[in-house]
Amino acid sequence: MSSSAQENFSGTRPVAPQHAFDVARLTAYMREHVDAAIGELQVEQFKGGQSNPTFRLSDGRRRYVLRRKPPGALLASAHAVDREFRVIRALAATEVPVAHAEVLCEDVDVIGTVFYVMDYVEGRIFWDPTLPGLAKEERGAMYDEMNRVIAALHRVDPAAIGLADFGRPGNYIERQVARWTKQYRAAQTERIEAAERLIDWLPQHIPPEGETRIVHGDFRVDNVIFHRTEARILAVLDWELSTLGDPLVDFAYHCLGWRLPFETLRGMGGLDIEPLGIPDEASYLQRYLQRVGGRRSVSADDWTYYLVFNMFRLVGILQGVAARALQGNASNALALETGRRTRPLAEQAWALAQTMSRAAKPAS
After folding, report:
1. How far apart are the C-alpha atoms of 219 and 236, rounded to whole Å?
2. What is the mean pLDDT of each run of 10 residues along the chain (364 residues)?
3. For 2, which DSSP code?
């Protein structure tokens, strides 16, 4: 799994025909808006990523990254590269490491879709959460660094960095359940009984809401760039799903890595991680709660709900990947295979929901 994941998702490849654009026009735009000295650009497409096609640009002197909306019919509110750009710009002055955002282009005549350009960050990206090839102590330090960074994000006051209006206040989980139900329905390719049950169950068991903070929405090991030799994150990537919401829900999504199956969804479910130096889920959660200031505890039932919701959310994401693959405009060659993991994940989520002590009765 580890070698194939690195091979399948790491590095770049030639630009896919369906994602090709006018490089000369992009070059002219960047000379005007980024750096007048930019030379002839060479463009490669990153292998990783299922949603927004991402490209490495180089003129032999400097390198940049371009993220664009994919072509074709898109789900409402999806692929929001403009929001990515805004949050990266805003976080630049905080403890959260991000790449320098250069320019957002909303003129679709330049390359055909909205896009933004940020600086390229040199470092390591791990696609396997077991971090193969590292020593036990290094793995522990890497996980502690991820814990530190997501806690730093959740300590940021959105209003203090100009993001008070980055999401609607209140009823975050309720709105998220409705949103991902809608996204799932819009991309649905077949009936999945477990997903139908979750759609009925989730609105009836919503826990009390916590404080409002910036949530990343997809914080996981392959969305951070580590330093080449140190257990230090240089940049957090892929802010497409970021908004304002409950930080514990965001952290629970990050912790799905402990629950998801290793072979199909690059998780650590079923693995013995103690010999690897990777902390268990419970101690990782407690360290996070300490770092955000101990302002909040979480009951076992609430934590289970957050995990179930996030599994359902991932079901919606995977269904979207499958739908785009069937349309022929998904950004990753393995998209159709990824989409096939929707049903087993929905079934895992429904089984987990049944373990809640209050699962048998709706919340009042």
Report:
1. 8
2. 54 88 96 96 83 91 93 57 95 97 95 95 94 96 98 97 94 95 91 96 95 95 96 95 95 97 88 96 96 86 97 92 74 67 94 82 43
3. H
* Burial track 226-263 (b if 16+ CB lie within 10 A, e otherwise): beeeebbbbbbbbbbbbbbbbbbbbbbbbbbbbbbbbe
Q: List the domain boundaries for the chain.
A: 2-119, 136-353
Q: What is the amino acid identity at position 174?
A: E
DSSP 8-state symbol, 97 = -
How big is the chain, counted in residues? Answer: 364
What is 2-119's CATH superfamily? Phosphorylase Kinase; domain 1 (3.30.200.20)
pTM, whole model, 2 decimals?
A: 0.88
pLDDT of the residue at 216: 97
**pLDDT of 330:** 60
Determine contact, residues 136/277, Cβ cutoff 8 Å.
Answer: yes
CATH number of 136-353: 3.90.1200.10
Which residue, among 202, 215, 194, 196, has the nearest Cα to 174 in the 3D structure?
A: 202
Q: Quick one: pLDDT at residue 10?
A: 67
Pairwise CA distance, residues 309 & 46, whole Å: 30
Q: Are 342 and 360 in contact (CB under 8 A)?
A: no
Report which residue type is found at 128. Answer: D
Q: How far apart are CA 191 and CA 254, in angstroms?
A: 27
